[in-house]
């Protein structure tokens, strides 16, 4: 399954080269570099990056660019903010659709039930289940407080 996402990224990179789409090409190269860096780090153990890890890398890249765009906007550097947001669009093409608020709440409730969580001490188990099933589909920064509120 790892190859599916890698293949899509590689194919898109080739298309961007043919179309001479410099902005998209640059972003796709950054994605490839991030994945290769992780591959190199895992090579010591004889592993390669899994599909879930690629999704996590992409999610992290989106979050970094959104934070940068916000900082650029606050600093009045709108052209740089636009460039960051354009990269977010390219990276997001490879991420699964984000869950709605209602879907996220249902997933959190299901995960709490699945692990039999009863207190805040079980939060790690609940988050582990959610990350296993929904990597790239929800913002775990906002899900954490939601889980905490339900268990607290």
UniProtKB/TrEMBL annotation:
* InterPro entries xrefs: Asn/Gln_tRNA_amidoTrase-B-like, GatB_Yqey_C_2, YqeY/Aim41, YqeY/Aim41_N
- A Pfam family: YqeY
* Stored Gene3D superfamilies: 1.10.10.410, Uncharacterised protein YqeY/AIM41 PF09424, N-terminal domain (1.10.1510.10)
A GO molecular function annotation here is:
carbon-nitrogen ligase activity, with glutamine as amido-N-donor
Q: What is this protein called?
A: Glutamyl-tRNA amidotransferase
